Amino acid sequence: MNERTRGLIERLASEHRLTEAEYAELIGHPEAAPALAERAVAVRRAIYGDAVYTRGLIEISNICKNDCLYCGIRRSNRDVKRYRLTPEDILACAEEGYGLGFRTFVMQGGEDAHFTDDVLCGIVAAVKARFPDCAVTLSMGERSRDSYQRLFDAGADRYLLRHETADAAHYARLHPKEMSYDNRMRCLMDLREIGYQVGCGFMVGSPFQTPGTLAKDLKFIEAFRPEMCGIGPFIPHHATPFKDAPAGTLEQTLMLLSIIRLIHPSVLLPATTALGTIHPRGRELGILAGANVVMPNLSPTGVRKQYELYDNKICTGDESAQCRQCLDRRMRGIGCRLVVDRGDYKAL
Ligand code: SAH
Questions:
Q1: Substitution candidate for ligand 1 out of 65, 162, 208, 244 with most atoms within 8 A of CB
Q2: Predicted confidence (pLDDT) per residue in 207-243, tens digit
Q3: Cα torsion through 56, 61, 67, 68, rounded to 10
Q4: What pLDDT, on the 0 to 100 scale, is given for residue 348?
Q5: Quick check: helix, strand or coil at residue 201?
Q6: What distance in Å separates the CA atoms of residue 152 and residue 55, rounded to the nearest whole number?
Q7: How does pLDDT run across 193-212, given as a tens digit for each residue?
């Protein structure tokens, strides 16, 4: 690593920001990754110790009105068997998760018209009433401000909506023309103003991504300061227009996790299932690059394969308890521990 790159790392670690051009330059120096990881882990440990937070992911529907070019459950994919969980199914998943030590439930799904505000508010309220000590996170895509407000009033604490890319032209190449970068950003701003803990994020190695677009993602994170930031490698799905595109790499994902930890020291940063899919120890390596959250699957085993955002997704055949135990073991193996905790954001 040259002196200049070393200098960029120093400045990022002390000032938590670089210029857009400097981010793009740093991304072009993969040999900087180990030094970035070392600093990122020190920052994570100083704030969160050896604790790794868990969130139980409940994939409530794979029915979607959108047609995102990268996503396996896009509307145009006629080969997916569509499903939707009932409120009873969802509560049963949460019940099992609670017994396993989960104190945050993430309800994620496609943009399924069945989940009107009334239906979704009823589910949120029921989960909060049954598990008052738990946080409820929603990840149900783009909705109106009024809808976000109603869900918040019903008890939702957090909302995950990846911005996908902070470059409007890049956004347009990943999405159908009915979707827009401006609306995605509008949603994130509304969520923030309403009072949610907000998660943004992007795929690493998505088609047409460049060091320049990634630098914009990093500038966006610097300015928006999300409570959470979900990043994972893009993985092609066989029935999408991007089926032949290369997957994002382990190395670049790890490097970006470290950079994001240094930009925003207290951010909640998951080592994602996609990272675990491209490498057998991807999630451990993610934690060792500065991540501090894992989100194992609590969905009923029978539907897991159908929530196929990308090919070869891991853990689709396992029971929730197996996933929890497996992750417990993996985290202990790297000197960390899964904690029974809501895992709220710690403002510094
Ligand atoms: N409908 C919700 C949930 C989307 S799925 C929403 O719009 O927010 C959650 C995330 O999975 C997406 O935001 C996207 O970044 C990621 N994803 C989708 N397809 C993927 C793929 N092929 N490879 C990796 N990640 C993917």
A1: 162
A2: 999 999 999 999 999 999 999 999 999 999 999 999 9
A3: 0
A4: 85
A5: strand
A6: 19
A7: 999 999 999 999 999 999 99
**How close is the Cα of 309 to the center of ligand 1, in Å?**
6
Superfamily of domain 3-8+15-339: Aldolase class I (3.20.20.70)
Nearest-atom index, ligand 1, CA of 236: 22
Report how far ligand 1's centroid is from the alpha carbon of 14 (Å): 32
Tokens read off for 326: 């497996």
3-state secondary structure of 2: coil
Give 2 Cα–ligand 1 centroid separation in angstroms: 36
Closest ligand 1 atom number to CA of residue 164: 15
Residues in contact with ligand 1 (CB, 6 Å cut-off): 70-71, 108, 110-111, 139, 141, 161-162, 164, 203, 232, 234-235, 237, 274, 309-310
Candidate of 231, 309, 311 to mutate for ligand 1, largest count of ligand atoms within 8 Å of Cβ: 309
Strand, helix or coil at 197?
strand
d(CA 342, CA 197) in angstroms, rounded, equals 13
Q: Which residues contact 48 (CB under 8 A, 6 or more apart)?
A: 292, 346
d(CA 201, CA 164): 6
Beta bridge partners of 59: 108
Domain boundaries, the chain: 3-8+15-339
The alpha carbon of 203 and the centre of ligand 1 are apart by a number of angstroms equal to 8
Q: Is the pTM of this model over 0.90?
A: yes
Q: What is the pLDDT of residues 150-173, one digit of tens each?
A: 999 999 999 999 999 999 999 999
Integer Cα distance of 170 and 195 in angstroms: 29
122 has a pLDDT exceeding 90:
yes
